[in-house]
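Please annotate this fold before class:
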Amino acid sequence: MTGLTGGRITQLVRHPIKSAGYEPVADAVLTEGAAFPFDRIWAVAHAAARLSEPVTWASKLQFLRGWGSADLMAVSCQSDPRTAQVTLGHPRRPTASFCLDDPADAARLIEWLRPLWPENRPEPTRVVRVPGQALTDQDQPLISINSVASLADLSTRLGKPLSVHRFRGNIWVEGWAPWAELDLVGNEITVGEARLRIEEPIGRCRATGANPETGEQDVDTMGALEAHYGHTDFGVFARVVSGGRIAVGDEVR
């Protein structure tokens, strides 16, 4: 595991609504066996979704996602976990606030998102929340860890700077050698006060080709990953084995 000394958290990001809004935060308290706090609490199902009743975790195919609409990747967010309120922004939509546990506000969110979702895809129909279950792409409570050095290396290969928000990660680490994080699979690391076990690489999709400032597909990240590295992985998934507070600037060991 060369190239893994001297790591520090440079960014923490949560995404209260699956595929609809990124929100940098200064700190977070991780809990053993849980996903990143207030991350993917809600998801917006479309008309063709096949959901159980009562709703449980469901695959990403049932929900609006960046793969289906580059415009969604440009949604930014501010949230208040105490009130379950989120405020969303977008370069082509008015800024609006929603209390998503209120059915009327959930309906307003669907109308706010509708212009950002292609008309030739099943329309957005309902906001879903599963108490105690993050609606991540995995049915397990995993946290994503990414390296800014790997992002810089990929940016150089592509000839343009790439935003961290293309990759919808939770923890961004500086100080590692490029791609050294992939060697961590099967090992444990300490992040701030918490301890995490690295489970597997993160396989990526074409949503990462969308610019989070414009909502337009402007780069072939998947092609670049395959051409330059022989895979389409970026970042790693981790499980919290011992909880605690983490903050921007904390050491990663």
